[in-house]
Amino acid sequence: MRSLPLADPGVPDARGPFHYLWWIVRGQPVPLFSGIGFAILWWLAQALVPAAVGRAVDSLTVQDAGGLVRWSFVVLGLGCFGAFTGVMRHRSAVYNWLCAAYRTVQVTVRQATRLGATLPKRLSTGEVISVGNSDIAHIGNALEILSRGVGALVAIGAVTVIMLNTSARLGLMVLIGVPLMAAAVAPLLRPLHRRQHAQRELQGDLATRAGDIVAGLRVLRGIGGEQVFTERYREESQRVRAAGVRVASVDAALEGAQLLLPGILIAFVTWQGAHLAMDGAITVGQLVSFYGYALFLVGPLRTLTESADKITKGHVSARRVVRVLTLEPEITGGTALGPREPGDLADAASGVVVRPGRLTALACAMPEDAIAVADRLGRYAEGDVTYGGVPLKDMAPAEVRERVLVAGNDARLFSGRLRDELDPKGTATDDEVADALHAAAAEDIVEALPDGLESRVAEAGREFSGGQQQRLRLVRALLADPEVLILVEPTSAVDAHTEARIADRLAKARAGRTTLVCATSPLMLDRADHVVFVKDGTVLAEGSHRTLMATEPAYAATVTRGED
């Protein structure tokens, strides 16, 4: 097994789809030209077989046993050479497909990471899925077909020259007939690509709809809207099916034309060749060769049509990839270095200041205010925020992400080994993992699994309940161990007993580290070193939980939800 040399895909040329495809080509010249070379040799080996067979037939006609044996070995040699070059051509084609496809995967994933929260705002889920599924395959197909297409052109040229030297009339028939067939098939490509594009758009919309339904299934069932959205999904799926049928009808017409038109050419060339043989203008062996040439040309002609189809699809897919690559993140950064030591994390808009080394709780009268403050503090939204006196907007985004971690309830669990999911960097020791599980009161989750931390997590962690997922996300955040950890409602989905245990253990787990917990739960607020109360977007009061309960009615109403 040979590894693909894709450690660094480079900087893509995103000026347009053609520039992007040319960048892909320039990135793999050796395997691409090797594939083209093997494809040319493979096609030529097949193209020369009819000539050798014709010579063998002529040797048999004149009873030349030595010539028959000689030309039979030539046919055998061409067959063996064709088999070898065919294997090498296929290996090169697969390698080129993988390089082009996975190079596209690398640059789009890197761009998705760079865009962060900007990506779902600019592109729908279906569009992203379409790029990740069909578009990378079409780009790989465009590179794969390139070698066969060039080889097919060379083979057609070689056969035409041979036929012109043997019989100018038959050679001209092929020379004129091949472009005419290509011109006859070409009008079918535009409606095919138009319908394929429309089908992909509908598939993207359907994937988005399916993702929304799955994400909100519990809510839909709760409000009785499941049947309504099911009907909408059914209607959209039928539109996708109808679009697929329309694509298939044009595709079937194209396939039929690719068989019918070369068949007509073969029949006409064979008929003319038979008349020439009867008139003595060509030998019987040459007639057999002409029939073999006409039959052989079906393959290169279909390859040329396939090349036009796949390269056009690759161009369309490259346009979609370029669209992703040209998006710019809403939040950018500078190059300034952060403070050497942890300092105050301050949000000027709200007046919230998170002191270093303390467990601070943020209670907001409106939940959206807490989210807004957390987004600004984590540099997920624009704001006048400083860390140790250094503006976050001037710091490099990578450094901000390394030092300040915002853990919300929209974070996902991915499929794979549970330990890898909890510790993506793979740097935590067994004791550290155990401590994090204990702090998040998540030991029972692991103990209930058949293989413990070695168990496989299903997609999106669907085998876990909402409260279990929340606790596992907390474990992952604790193991990341950032300088500043911002937790947004980390216990909203767990019962009071579990929440009390987490509240007691969280302070110990983050001792000496800066932690901000956005919550209105009395259990969490009572364990905090300091509580900041925000109302109408600004700080209204600060102090301990018990002090604020006694002195600030608005805080008490928020925490108790208006209960006496």
TrEMBL record:
Main subcellular location: membrane
Listed GO CC annotations: plasma membrane
InterPro entries: ABC1_TM_dom, ABC1_TM_sf, ABC_transporter-like_ATP-bd, ABC_transporter-like_CS, P-loop_NTPase, Type_1_exporter
Domain ABC transporter: 322-561
Pfam families: ABC_membrane, ABC_tran
Domain ABC transmembrane type-1: 35-313
Compartment annotation: Cell membrane
PROSITE patterns xref list: ABC_TM1F (PS50929), ABC_TRANSPORTER_1 (PS00211), ABC_TRANSPORTER_2 (PS50893)
GO molecular function: ABC-type oligopeptide transporter activity; ATP binding; ATP hydrolysis activity
Transmembrane segments: 30-49, 69-88, 145-164, 170-189
Keyword terms of this UniProt record: Membrane, Transmembrane, Transmembrane helix
Domain of life: Bacteria
Topology in membrane: Multi-pass membrane protein
Protein name, as recorded: ABC-type multidrug transport system fused ATPase/permease subunit
